[in-house]
């Protein structure tokens, strides 16, 4: 079986991912519940509709977590939302997928997790992209990793473009390259990345 390719931001299907994330949490709950038997029983119940028992798989889209994944995708992929809400958008998904990383102490949060997120996973990719958008809204420079994520490129591809002079970056070695916010926004706009389209001139020219 060939290795799974690294995901790209633009190719993530929000409804599919939302269903997978919620199903993963349900499976995790059911797996942990086995350790409580036989003294305790944990039941994941989808209830009834018109007198018929519903399957858990059929009600996954009705959960808050499902909508949270959709909201995260909307902000990370298209910039639909407000930068100030980035933390709130990311928190439910990050808490569900990485429960051990966020202990509620206030010493770490989704932004810290995004700095260490695995971009070979779709949720990790979304976290990196979400906080990259927030940084740009604050006028902060992006790392090559963050900018590549927003552009649906690999870091290697982005470094190649920098070496060709298609993108202005500062820093020393490749891994230290950063791109200023104004340059990043200009370049992302030129590539047609959603949420960075240039505004039409008010002069009508």
Describe, in plain words, how this protein is organized in 3D.
By secondary structure, the chain is mainly alpha-helical. It is 49% helix and 4% strand. The strands form 2 sheets. The protein has a two-stranded antiparallel ribbon. The longest helix has 20 residues, at 14-33. The radius of gyration is 20 Å and the shape is elongated. The model is unreliable at 200-205 (pLDDT under 50).
Query: Which class best fits the helix and strand makeup?
Result: mainly alpha
On the 0-100 scale, what is the average pLDDT? 84
SS field, number of helical segments: 9
Main beta-sheet strand count, sense and barrel state: 2 strands, antiparallel
Q: What is the distance, rounded to the nearest whole angstrom, between the alpha carbons of the first and last residues?
A: 55 Å
Question: How many E strands?
Answer: 4
Which oligomeric state applies?
Answer: single chain
Q: Helicity range of the residues?
A: 40-55%
Low-confidence stretches: 200-205
Q: What order do the helices and strands follow?
A: HEEHHHHHEHHEH
Shape: elongated
Strand content: under 5%
Widest sheet, order of strands: 1-2
Q: Nearest-angstrom radius of gyration?
A: 20 Å
Write the layout of secondary structure elements.
Elements lengths: L13 H20 L14 E2 L2 E2 L2 H4 L4 H15 L7 H12 L12 H7 L5 H16 L4 E2 H7 L4 H9 L14 E2 L1 H10 L15
Antiparallel strand pairs: 1-2, 3-4
Helix pairs in contact: 1-3, 3-4, 3-6, 4-6, 5-6, 6-7, 7-8
């Amino acid at each position: 079986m060939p290795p799974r390719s690294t995901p790209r931001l633009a190719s993530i299907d929000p409804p599919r991912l939302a269903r997978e994330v919620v199903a993963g949490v349900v499976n995790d709950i059911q797996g942990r519940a086995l350790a409580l038997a036989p003294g305790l029983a944990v039941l994941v119940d989808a209830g009834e509709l018109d007198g018929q028992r519903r399957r858990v798989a059929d009600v996954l889209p009705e959960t808050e977590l499902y909508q949270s994944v959709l909201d995260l995708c909307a902000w990370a992929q298209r910039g639909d939302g407000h930068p100030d809400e980035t933390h709130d958008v990311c928190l439910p998904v990050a808490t569900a997928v990485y429960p051990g990383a966020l202990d509620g102490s206030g010493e770490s949060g989704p932004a810290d997790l995004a700095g260490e997120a695995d971009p070979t996973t779709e949720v990790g990719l979304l976290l990196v992209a979400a906080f990259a958008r927030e940084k740009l809204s604050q006028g902060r420079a992006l790392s090559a990793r963050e900018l590549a994520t927003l552009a649906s490129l690999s870091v290697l591809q982005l470094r190649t473009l920098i070496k060709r002079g298609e993108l202005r970056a500062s820093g020393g070695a490749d891994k230290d390259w950063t791109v200023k916010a104004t340059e990043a926004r200009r370049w992302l706009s030129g590539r047609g990345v959603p949420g960075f389209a240039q505004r039409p001139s008010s002069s009508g020219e």
